[in-house]
Write a structure and sequence with these properties.
The two termini are about 15 Å apart. The chain has about 160 residues and is of the alpha/beta class. The model has no long low-confidence stretch (mean pLDDT about 85). The protein is about 35% helix and about 15% strand. It has six helices and six strands.
Length: about 160
C-alpha cells in the first residue's frame, strides 16, 4: 500500500505522516481485511514509525512491515524490529542492496525486496548469494517485462511486484 499525494500543493513529502495516513485509511475508512482479503498489505515504515511501535497497532495476519532502505540501523531500530519479530509480524527490507549494516536485521527479516531498476542483474545475483545463509524469501519489485520476470525467477525470487503483473 502506497501513499500518493493527490493535491500537488508542493508541501514536502513526510514519510512518517504518509505511512500513518495509509494505516488510518486502511483500518478506519475501509477495514484492512476488506482491502487485502486473504492477502497481506506491504506497508512502508520509517524509522520513526518503527520506534514508536505504530506497526503493533495493525493486525499481524494482514500486514508486512517494510523497513525502508534509508533508516539508520542502530540498537534502537534493531530492538524495534526484534519486538515485531517476537510478536509474530512479517518484516521486509525494502529496496535492498547488500551492505554489512543490514546484518543485525537479516535474522529478524522474512522478506528481502530487490529493486530490479536500482541495480544490474549481476550485482543483485551477488547480493542473493550473500543472502543464502539467511532464512529470507526474495521479492523482485518493479518488474516491468517478461524478461525481468524470468531473470529474477531464475535468481530464486519467490515473490514479484510490478507493472508487468
Amino acid at each position: 500500500m502506497l501513499f500518493r499525494c493527490a493535491d500537488g500543493d508542493g508541501e514536502p513529502f513526510q514519510g512518517t505522516l504518509a505511512s500513518n495516513q495509509v494505516i488510518l485509511d486502511a483500518l478506519l475508512q475501509y477495514g484492512l481485511p476488506r482491502v487485502v482479503g486473504d492477502c497481506k498489505a506491504f506497508i512502508n515504515f520509517t524509522r520513526e514509525n518503527l520506534l514508536e511501535g505504530t506497526a503493533l497497532l495493525l493486525p499481524k495476519s494482514h500486514v508486512v512491515i517494510e523497513v525502508l532502505e534509508d533508516v539508520e540501523v542502530d540498537d534502537k531500530l534493531i530492538a524495534a524490529v526484534q519486538r515485531l519479530h517476537d510478536a509474530g509480524y512479517t518484516t521486509a527490507l525494502d529496496d535492498f542492496i547488500y551492505h554489512d549494516r543490514w546484518l543485525p536485521l537479516l535474522p529478524l527479516t522474512h522478506i528481502v525486496k530487490l529493486d530490479v531498476l536500482l541495480d544490474t542483474p549481476e550485482s543483485l545475483a551477488n547480493s542473493v548469494k550473500k543472502l543464502r545463509p539467511f532464512d529470507v524469501k526474495l521479492l523482485a519489485e518493479k518488474i516491468e517485462t517478461e524478461e525481468q520476470n524470468q531473470i529474477y525467477r531464475n535468481l530464486g525470487c519467490e515473490y514479484f511486484q510490478g507493472y508487468y503483473f
